[in-house]
């Protein structure tokens, strides 16, 4: 078990900066998930930690030791690849034991370790098979077994579930969580799937354009995103945004589309709010003439059974979503609709995208404000 | 910074070690002999005593350039290359289009047509020499039986026919190679494109001109480049069929004749250096044309 | 009511069915014509090789099954010696090229090595330049090594043909193997050599088979060096032996025997090509189409 720490790590391919001076501390035994849109550099960052790709600048520490120049095999870590990267010409047992053979462990020790891993992952009956004779889930288990057998101090996962279908993905997600609970080894996990990130992580690292947007516990990121990117990245359907009308600094009332009006008490030093955000589940579909509600036109509803999502058009270019459970409302496309909201669920973002704290006060009644 | 550098330096060192046998061998069997050949072309050395030489400047180059036999060989080679590569490309394209379609036993047919290409050129020359024999050859017997000619044609002896015969045999031998490369190019074209064309009723000739041909052009271009360079150095076919008959003598035969038959190391080296320069020039032109094609298309 | 463009010019279904049948028939006729063009000469060589005396000059399409040409050929120590020489030379030069080529291909295809591009271009240039250009220099090298008029002279000189070829093709094969496999092996603590021998090599079986086969064909068929560096009959390779087979005059050409010899040298290649046809196609095209 070991901590991992990155100090000012950067990586450029040619002139293209994939990772821009990242600092990160990962504690011993922690499960950290790197998440971000494709091309954000999350896979590269994982390979930098693994030592598969050399850093262009900065330092990598594992267990407090400087490992920046240490080759991948000597860093005491294991890597589970997206394509599993099982050796197609070796059977399962040999795939698992190959690293141990390379390390010249004794035959008995190898057999013992393979047996233990096989037992743990319930792949004992597959040991003689070749990778191509296995199903996707079985391959995944073998890949994890191969990682496990070396008794690594850090586990690295590179989108390990992205090649599985939905059911299997859920099952393996559960097993990986259980694995972490059992072995308590430091794990770093890369994914583009926010569900995996939210469910597996002790802490999530959100990456964008090679930089860390925010690090924190899943709930913390969801409830208190530091900026608009994080706020929009987590949550499905994503947070509804709307630009505020430009008002002078002296005017305390914020105005937005659909008659949105709010007298915010925020710290002026943090800048002037330029945009509002409201999560779909923080909105409630109400009558169009409800006091304080944002007005729009109902467009479409998607009923999923356990929940429903409504699309409400606020302006020509802006459609908001509302997510709710219970029985869906009786409303036809084209009907006027109102969206009610609570001030404690409102997010304000400044010009630079940073979230601005505000104290909850009462939304202004539409009649009163106009 | 140092981590990346150290890892790259280590990889580079490994790469050098892995490449060392290749580089040493290539220097020994290609680069050094090439350099020595060019070196000898400035000397008056003879093959039986290669250590005994004097420098003669460009004299050998001038002598080769003034030899009408050399220019005859250059002309033969160019005519041979142009006509046979041209015919091979057309025939190869036609056969490739045919074999690209789905039919029973396609795999076996594609393998079978490789036979002419896989056999030694000497054997092909011998088989066709027999089939084209003026008295007993199958072709002439057939022509006489059909009443097309009065008596057998001396395909491999008549000075006016022999270059044509060489081209004919070469087309037979190397068309399979063309077919293979063009087929590979055709297989890169996604089937959906044709399905889309089918649905919208694009006629077959238009499909060929505006879909197949443009998309297969890179493959055809590469195939033509390889075949042209190969045809320009042709030696065995002409040599077996007609030895040093001036009507079919290629540049390679001329250069080897100077070197081996006349034992004139200096002159032979100068001739082969001429060959090298001519082929190099043609290669540069073709590669340039392909690049241009890729840049504009 | 509007009629769609497609239906305005539509024939009856039966017409289309006939049309399709005609097309299919045309396709098979075309394939048959191609097969006759490509295969008949070799078939005719087989037919002729089983005929002797007057029968050779008769126009009969079936083999006469008279194997005296072959018996004479196999009793001829020079031809049999040439067959052995060809086999040894082609095998050894192919083996050397494969070993050197695999090592080089790994460096060129996988390792971070900027000068690799130049090496690859040089390799490609060497594989297309005319062999006659190096003839005089090669003569000297062979002389220095004391190999003149020995089959081993051919092994050395054939490397100029086979080595660039194997290096080029194997490099493109190695590039196509998934990179994650190599990363997995690096994590497992393998050295580069161990990655090559234990992870990549077992996966390259088909690539090595096809490359080796093509290299073997190149060496087996070579004529110019074999003609130049070998002086005496007992050291010759088969192509040269066949090339130099002549009768006492133009009209006494031993055609029957030449055909028997031709059939014999081609047979091993034929068998190999038919067995490995898919791999050969892959090998030939991977170098050319992608390169």
What layout of secondary structure does this protein have?
The complex is a heterotrimer of chains A (370), B (297) and C (291).
Chain A lengths: L3 E10 L2 E11 L4 E5 L6 H9 L6 E6 L2 E2 L10 E4 L11 H11 L4 H15 L14 H14 L4 E5 L7 H18 L2 E6 L2 H7 L2 E6 L2 E6 L1 H6 L4 H6 L6 E4 L9 E4 L3 E4 L1 E2 L6 E6 L5 E3 L7 E10 L4 E8 L2 E7 L11 E5 L6 E4 L4 E2 L1 E2 L6 H4 L1
Parallel strand pairs in A: 3-8, 3-9, 6-7, 7-8
Antiparallel strand pairs in A: 1-2, 1-4, 4-5, 9-10, 11-15, 12-13, 14-23, 15-21, 16-20, 17-18, 17-20, 18-19, 21-22
Chain B lengths: L1 H39 L18 H7 L2 H33 L5 H7 L2 H4 L2 H11 L6 H8 L16 H26 L3 H9 L4 H29 L3 H7 L8 H11 L3 H32 L1
Chain C lengths: L4 H4 L4 H37 L18 H8 L1 H34 L5 H13 L6 H10 L6 H26 L2 H9 L4 H12 L1 H17 L2 H6 L8 H7 L10 H21 L1 H14 L1
Helix pairs in contact in C: 2-13, 3-13, 4-7, 4-10, 5-7, 7-10, 7-14, 8-9, 10-14
Salient structural properties:
heterotrimer, A: 370 residues, alpha+beta, Rossmann fold, OB fold (Dihydrolipoamide Acetyltransferase, E2P), 2 domains, 6-stranded mixed β-sheet, 5-stranded antiparallel β-sheet, 24% helix, elongated, disordered C terminus, B: 297 residues, mainly alpha, MetI-like fold, 13 helices, 75% helix, flat
Please provide the ordered H/E string of secondary-structure elements of chain C.
HHHHHHHHHHHHHH
Would you state the CATH class of the largest domain in chain B?
Mainly Alpha
Specify the helix fraction band of chain C: over 70%
CATH architecture of the largest domain in chain B: Orthogonal Bundle
Radius of gyration over C-alpha positions of chain B, nearest whole angstrom? 24 Å
- The parts of chain C where pLDDT drops under 50 for at least 5 residues are 1-8
- How many domains of chain B, as an integer? 2
What would CATH call the architecture of the largest domain in chain C? Orthogonal Bundle
Provide a descriptive summary of the structure in words:
In chain A, 24% of the residues lie in helices and 33% in strands. By secondary structure, chain A is an alpha+beta fold. Chain A has 2 domains: 4-231, P-loop containing nucleotide triphosphate hydrolases (Rossmann fold); 236-369, Beta Barrel (OB fold (Dihydrolipoamide Acetyltransferase, E2P)). In chain A, the strands form 6 sheets. In chain A, strands 6-7-8-3-9-10 form a 6-stranded mixed sheet, with helices on both faces. A 5-stranded antiparallel sheet of chain A has the order 16-20-17-18-19, with no helix packed on it. A 4-stranded antiparallel sheet of chain A has the order 2-1-4-5, covered by helices on one side. In chain A, a hairpin with a 4-residue loop joins strand 21 and strand 22 (355-356). The mean pLDDT of chain B is 87. Chain B has helices at residues 2-40, 59-65, 68-100, 106-112, 115-118, 121-131, 138-145, 162-187, 191-199, 204-232, 236-242, 251-261, 265-296. Chain B has 297 residues and is mainly alpha-helical. In chain B, helix 6 packs parallel to helix 11. Helix content of chain B is 75%, strand content 0%. Chain B has 2 domains: 1-40; 42-296, MetI-like fold. The radius of gyration of chain B is 24 Å and the shape is flat. With 291 residues, chain C is an all-alpha fold. Chain C has 2 domains: 10-57; 68-290, MetI-like fold (Orthogonal Bundle). Helix content of chain C is 75%, strand content 0%. Chain C is built from 14 helices and no strands. Mean pLDDT of chain C is 85; it is low at 1-8.
